[in-house]
Amino acid sequence: MLYQRYFEAAVSRLKDERRYRVFVHLERDVESFPLARWHRDDGSVQDVTVWCSNDYLGMGQHPEAISAMVETASRVGAGAGGTRNISGTSHAIVELERELADLHGKEAALVFTSGWISNLAAISTIADLLPNCLILSDASNHNSMIEGVKRSRAERKVFRHNDLAHLEELLIEAGDRPKLIVFESLYSMNGKIAPVKEIADLAERYGAMTYVDEVHAVGMYGPRGAGICERDGVMDRIDVIEGTLAKGFGATGGYVAGDALVIDAIRSYAGAFIFSTALPPPVAAAACASVRLLKRRSDLRAAHQRATHITKHALAAGGLPVLENGSHIVPVMVRDAELCKAASDLLLTRHHIYIQPINYPSVAKGSERLRVTPTPRHTQEHIAHLVEAMVGVWHTLGIPFVEPPSHLHVDEKSKEHCAYPEIKLAAQ
Amino acid sequence: MLYQRYFEAAVSRLKDERRYRVFVHLERDVESFPLARWHRDDGSVQDVTVWCSNDYLGMGQHPEAISAMVETASRVGAGAGGTRNISGTSHAIVELERELADLHGKEAALVFTSGWISNLAAISTIADLLPNCLILSDASNHNSMIEGVKRSRAERKVFRHNDLAHLEELLIEAGDRPKLIVFESLYSMNGKIAPVKEIADLAERYGAMTYVDEVHAVGMYGPRGAGICERDGVMDRIDVIEGTLAKGFGATGGYVAGDALVIDAIRSYAGAFIFSTALPPPVAAAACASVRLLKRRSDLRAAHQRATHITKHALAAGGLPVLENGSHIVPVMVRDAELCKAASDLLLTRHHIYIQPINYPSVAKGSERLRVTPTPRHTQEHIAHLVEAMVGVWHTLGIPFVEPPSHLHVDEKSKEHCAYPEIKLAAQ
């Protein structure tokens, strides 16, 4: 092939920097989640415990989501048949959009083929429709938001991660022009939660529109699972809420919710929406079933938080360097790309635990980590096994341990609601 | 809401230009395809015949595709659970990629969440990995290809639609630098087929890499349904073939196929791939079943071509201005945005036929059209009803008729293979 050397050089570069990624070939199983079958290269198959899934609540394996998908596929078929305009506006997608608008207390919602595309399409379209718009973007925003910001013709400024003073400074500096603040409610790689209320305050004070990415929060926070904005009582003060159907809701696709007018403008102007085949009705139906179910299932959210709490406590009690953050994401710090990859490999091959390494560019160099995501279906045995395995791997590879920080101790109140008995650590 | 006036102005602009789109709310039905239920705004429901679906072969409603989706959802769940790196490399997607690589006779394939994203991600990544690359892009390329071209940092030049002389001129002008020719094998809006062999000749002569979008051809052309490149015997002379799982294959998602090295580079560098949740296993399984089935079902391709041939002939015999193109897409020219929308509305409300209007920016102003897409499941009755309805609408609205051009007459050879008896036109 022509130009072979350029592609070779590009791939070699990643290998040299120890950030060439090898995908682990897995087969999920509704019966055994969070276990999955790992297909090795030699053709053999091994059960492994998945500890890094974004199917945070196990909704992808929930009977109601699956039966909605099965019933819809059997009745209307596997695909949408076209873009929304070309016969792709299915009954299932219309119902899903109603359900999502209701979830977020907004007039309208619009479904995309992925969360990545929601951000690309919605951010760039909104910014381009506001004359002389300035985008103010959090420094830790997800790749898809950065792509949306870059795709627009608008000027952009980046404010330091969750830094209200810096954001305010930029808002003042910007003066009267239209301003769009784009940020996440919960940052996936460090698990930190944004000061959503304070950002809404600033937006109101200085006249800016707000766009929040809630993909790591929808389904999991707030009384009906609408996310951090719902939990913090500020849903009505945020202009556009973007979410995903692929994580807490266990299916696939993304969406935005907001005033009917803004949603109509995005629907009418965003090429990525206009020119993409619609989400298949069976996928929309599965997502819709999840959203409906999670509106009333606070118990699943509580079980998720409990599993997280216990996991953090147990890992910290094992001396592992857990990054505290107040969310359901449990980053365990390695701070070295090669060790991080080696730890992931050892966990898989020796302990049959799957946690992929998080290296640059997902996180800054020197802040490499394993990102653990407990689900309500991780049992006390799973957690004990995880801690034992990680402690063993840390010893084997000589990764630094830390003393458990005191704020990670289980307090009396949360103990009361704890579904899991005290974790016994065989390795201790 | 802040900035309301800007969004109002944006939506009004579309309404003033008669290109504000209203989606038709449909419910498909595996039993009655190409019929679907139209949900009117008043809540009533009406059966309509869909004549504009991109589910060209009806594979979205095929029992093998549906049962693959149902079986996989029941066994492994509704969603992928994460990106390809975060436990999203499912067995179903690994199998699908093998099947697609085999289909196109390439070393590897990579699946994306949509065809739109495949083009955005693959074109921009390839161009950015080639130092000082010049992209040569066909003037009629799809929105997703244009977005991919624009997203890259590479310089680009546009060659006139299917114009080999112009392409050659630009290749000569470019000299020694890396060059990437991006084009479609079959253009969706006019149905024209690219001179793929001649483009491959030019690429070899002047040292350019080739990237072809086969989304409107995969499943439908070539002995095993690999598309126009297969039909024309040039599959091995094209570097990267992009396809969709959402049209001929009846599911959703997109893909690229090529040398393992190029595919690995795209996999490793394309943010839109890296940071998107993988296609759900049930969707991948449905697509995989379709691809496998269509490798051996030339009879479905033949039936599709017959339905197209008969539809074109019947419409032309009715005096309707059919744009000839040699493909399965049947554009019927209206050449006026308002009339085009009115024709579509009348077909739906009076005749219960759904064909959405194709107006600017999908086509140039003054070339507005109805884009008819026959499937193997449109019967002679459907075709007769279509022609009668369109002739009626043309009369009602005073849209110009034309004499049927002679090259649309059914020749003796194609008559032999014709599945449909002679169409009787009640309106004639």
Automatic annotation (TrEMBL), chains A, B:
InterPro entries: 4pyrrol_synth_NH2levulA_synth, Aminotransferase_I/II_large, AON_synthase_class-II, PyrdxlP-dep_Trfase, PyrdxlP-dep_Trfase_major, PyrdxlP-dep_Trfase_small. Pathway: Porphyrin-containing compound metabolism; protoporphyrin-IX biosynthesis; 5-aminolevulinate from glycine: step 1/1. Transmembrane segments: none annotated. Keywords: Acyltransferase, Heme biosynthesis, Pyridoxal phosphate, Transferase. Its cofactor is pyridoxal 5'-phosphate. Residues 47-389 form the Aminotransferase class I/classII large domain. One of its GO terms (biological process) is protoporphyrinogen IX biosynthetic process. The keyword Acyltransferase applies. The keyword Acyltransferase applies. It comes from the Bacteria. It catalyses: succinyl-CoA + glycine + H(+) = 5-aminolevulinate + CO2 + CoA. Its EC number is 2.3.1.37. GO terms for molecular function: 5-aminolevulinate synthase activity; pyridoxal phosphate binding. Homodimer. Belongs to the class-II pyridoxal-phosphate-dependent aminotransferase family. This is 5-aminolevulinate synthase.
